[in-house]
Amino acid sequence: MSNALHVSCDAATARTAQGTRSPAYPRLVIATTILASSLAFIDGSVVNVGLPAIGRSFHADAIGLQWVVNAYLLPLSALLLLGGAAGDRYGRRRLLITGVLLFGIASLACAVAPTLILLLFARFVQGASAAMLMPNSLAILGQSFSGEAKGRAIGIWAATGAAAGAIGPVLGGWLIDAGSWRFAFLINVPLSVAAIVLADYVDRDVDDTAGSLDWLGGALVTAALGLATWALTEGSSRAWSPSTFVVLGTGLIFLLLFLSAERRLGDRAMMPLSLFGSPSFVGLTLLTLLLYGALGGLFVLVPYVLIQAGGYTATQAGAALLPLPLVIAVASPAAGALAAKVGPRWLLITGPVIVAAGFLLAVRIGSDRSYWLGVFPAMVVIALGMAGAVAPLTTAVLMSVDSHHTGAASGLNSAVARTGGLVATALIGPVIASSGPALLSAFGVAAAMGAVICSVAAASAATLIAPARKPS
């Protein structure tokens, strides 16, 4: 669900601000990018609703269910920047088609997977494919339109993505209730076919003058995140054994090697370290990691708890989350306009505080409370807080660095949002492993911890993000 809340990869439009041209079929270009990105938006929200059914089908334990989510988030987090750079180098249309094709094949593989291991492998391919199609779908809009037309196109893209993220859990839940969790993955197959057909109307582009890709950085950060995620998942769900600490330490070594490699590459790196010379950018990165981490963990747990402890059907659990995208869609434009007048800093402080209040309300979710007294108030308050943070966050990221680094900064911020969800999902094993009253108790503790994390995110914004400069 949280995927739909983050307008991903403004790096794309930043990189293609120059040299835009009018497409021959503008509506078909918009339709192509919407269909392609909707694959990732829908999949990221459908799977959360299907976790209980997947667990029953494969007799999976908590660790297995955590990896159903993280096998997708891991390559998406690690390779998102590399996917955007590959589009610059080899052609955004080509990368979009390749990503959509692989995503469709992987979705079909998920639907027919006979074992949990094969399902996890297919989910990993889905995540790697999403890292190709997501940045390049928006980059295509950036290169195809200019001026007001670009703004309208991106607005349509973002609104439709939010709608897809909202409809996904309900549609997926209905398919699960009507037949099987496997049907939920099949949603992606016709969408993939349609996107590939429509991609023929997107202008071809290849920039052979672009620099070489940071393959070493991509490999090192994937290894680092993979090892750290495994260690956190194993440690939180079972026990912190010596081998778990060894794996975690090895992951940290790979992270240090990644930072060393990025330092040597300078501005040619997938994550230029010069970005972190800005305290505001450091604060925004920390805020993104914490806020989206807390949100990502919650929205894996809420459908799971509603189904397992609240007696909800999968359809009802998906519908229970609808207030979040709907309120954000209505309130975000006003928050964006306010941020333009007063600057984003105060909204980035108050937004996470309001989200923290929503997390505290979520502690009350239980089997003995109705939806309107338990789930609904928490979803609305969290949505209001996120509406105050989503648009100002994008603005603040672009303001925190010089024009040469806007693409890298915004793309990195998007990747950090996914990484937050990855880490949070690795740590929720004790909740998923619980049942009955213990499940509700463990969920309450997790929601309270989420409130603390959101409060720390607000503190990082207050401490590190520079106040807006008054016009002279």
Give an overview in words.
Helix 3 runs antiparallel to helix 9, helix 5 runs antiparallel to helix 6 and helix 14 packs antiparallel against helix 15 (375-399). Helix content is 78%, strand content 0%. With 472 residues, it is mostly helical. The protein folds into 3 domains: 1-204, MFS general substrate transporter like domains (Growth Hormone, Chain: A, Up-down Bundle); 215-269, no CATH class; 276-472, Growth Hormone, Chain: A, CATH 1.20.1250.20.
Report on the biggest sheet.
none
How large is the radius of gyration? Answer: 21 Å
The overall pLDDT average reads: 88
Residue ranges: pLDDT <50 for 5 or more in a row?
10-14
Classified by CATH, the class of the largest domain is Mainly Alpha
The overall number of domains is 3
Taken as a percent bin, the fraction of beta residues is: under 5%
Principal-axis shape equals globular
CATH architecture classification of the largest domain:
Up-down Bundle
Question: How helix-rich are the residues, as a percent range?
Answer: over 70%
Helices and strands, with pairings:
Blueprint: H1 11-15, H2 26-58, H3 62-90, H4 92-112, H5 116-144, H6 147-178, H7 181-186, H8 188-198, H9 215-237, H10 242-265, H11 279-308, H12 314-320, H13 323-342, H14 345-362, H15 375-399, H16 406-426, H17 429-432, H18 437-464
Helix pairs in contact: 2-3, 2-5, 2-6, 2-8, 2-11, 3-4, 3-5, 3-9, 3-16, 4-5, 4-8, 5-6, 6-12, 6-13, 9-10, 9-16, 11-12, 11-16, 11-18, 13-15, 14-15, 14-18, 15-16
Q: What characteristics describe this protein?
A:
472 residues; mainly alpha; Growth Hormone, Chain: A; 78% helix
